[in-house]
Design goal:
Elements: H1 4-13, H2 22-32
């Protein structure tokens, strides 16, 4: 999971390794044909439903005083 930036940063902080730049690390990676392991991006799971959207029957009423709604919530 090391890319060229991480390798060059490691070489600058570690005294036992020679210091190399990002470009030099990139050239060495290409010459040795090294590939970094890419972490897969998280994708939100999607749900598939076969329900059709129901029409709004409240829009059909002319007089909205005849429409009642209740909500009973228990704590």
């Amino acid at each position: 999971m090391y890319g060229c930036r991480r390798i060059s940063k490691y070489s600058k902080t570690n005294e036992q390794t020679p210091t190399i730049s990002n470009y030099m690390a990139l050239k060495l990676i290409r010459q040795l044909n090294i590939r970094s392991i890419m972490v897969k991006r998280y994708r939100k799971p999607t749900t598939k439903n076969n329900y059709t959207q129901q029409e709004n029957i409240i829009k059909k009423f002319d007089d909205l005083s005849g429409i009642w709604s209740t909500d009973i919530t228990y704590l």
